[in-house]
Amino acid sequence: MDATHTNHHIHHESQPQVTQKERVDLDANLPDLSRRVIFAITFGFLGINMGFSLQSSQMSRIFQSIGANPNTLGFFFIFPPLMGMIVQPLIGKYSDRTWNRFGRRMPYLLFGAPVAALVLLMLPPFTGSLGFGYGSVAAMVFAAFAVCFMDLFNNICMQPFRMIVGDMVNNKQKNFAWSWQQIFFNGGGILASLLPFVFALLGMHNTAKRGVVPNTVIWAYVVAAAVLFITSMWTVFNVKEYDPKTYAKYHGIDPAANTQSVSLWHLLKTAPKSFYEICLVQFFSWVGVMYVWTYTTGTLAKNVWGTSNPTSAGFQAAGNWYGVLTAILSIAGICWGFLYSKSKANARKQWYALGLGLGSLGLILVSFAHNQMLTIIAFILFGIAYFTIHTIPFTLLTSSLNGENEGAYMGLFNIGICLPQIIASLLSFVIFPMTGKSQPMMMLIAGISLAIGALCVHHIHEGVAKK
Length: 467
Description:
Layout: E1 17-18, H1 20-27, H2 35-43, H3 45-65, H4 73-76, H5 79-95, H6 106-121, H7 137-168, H8 171-201, H9 215-238, H10 244-251, H11 264-269, H12 273-303, H13 313-341, H14 348-368, H15 372-398, H16 406-413, H17 415-434, H18 439-456, E2 464-465
Antiparallel strand pairs: 1-2
């Protein structure tokens, strides 16, 4: 149905490529924004990534603590990317055409942030406290649904923050805006990941009875919910989006493009070549990331603490240490980001391949490391890759878009992030038994996957779409 409403200036062939200079000219109409506005646009990523970081660093620990079999961990990690794959293209498509008193992207954030905060409070940390029983079907089902809803609303919150940079920030200020967004993103990761470790240092119980998640994890989620709500509302009430006519004037597009509906399928068919080339790299990148999220706690517990028992103090200590390592990777990402911000535009692919290659070395190292110092070095290397995966693909993609349907394309691009995670989770049911149920071997496979992604970078044709 949407395809019948496609406006006249959208063609069926792939978008042609032009030079970076032409892209600068296209962005020239957008005014400079004050640092206060850019701060408000990007600040919400602090809270958004607290939720995602707790998911990545604590979800495996939580599910194993309430009785999940390590053989089935991949099943639970299917739900978050599935939610993202469904939600983000729809948020992008419909917010491209949403204009009301609250703005274009802000209505989705105004609705999503409070619900996301509430869902964080009902997540798996509290599952064991509801009396379902260790390893019970009811506990697993409740936890799985909680994860689905958490990721659903976290994605609803995250997408507006990404899209508004393209809507309001000109080319001259984009490096600054994306840098601040990544600083807040990594800052949220550092804060969330360290909370269980800090709470334990302050004397909070880091172990609990069988089937119950420790208080250190529960209170980390409570703090994350509060920060997510506060930072998101800061953005909602401090950012005034452009009205339809102003947006069209600044972006040099037909004002009718703000109202005409275009099918997602049509956009996929007319996407620039680089869209799919970057998605290929993203496939191998996110297979690796998914296995890091799933198997790091078990790998650390086995290699460093010598245990596979989720109820042991050693396993819970490994869970806290993974939180510390997640903070370390975020700090490494910030430092690498300052270096990357000084690089030349024509060197993006080299930085992309280098970042993935260093991350590959880090994951291979952690799969064999038997002391904490080596895991620190490994996660510094992986932190470089993690920054790279979250930054350079979006830079390469947006340099190939012409300003129309940008939100929809950003949402569709998220399929290239989410689908690999789902495939990786499904493959784990085959691969994990083949490794002898070895979580360290799964980390080795994650490192190999990043290495393949690094090799695929060289086939990306970066370019800008001309109107």
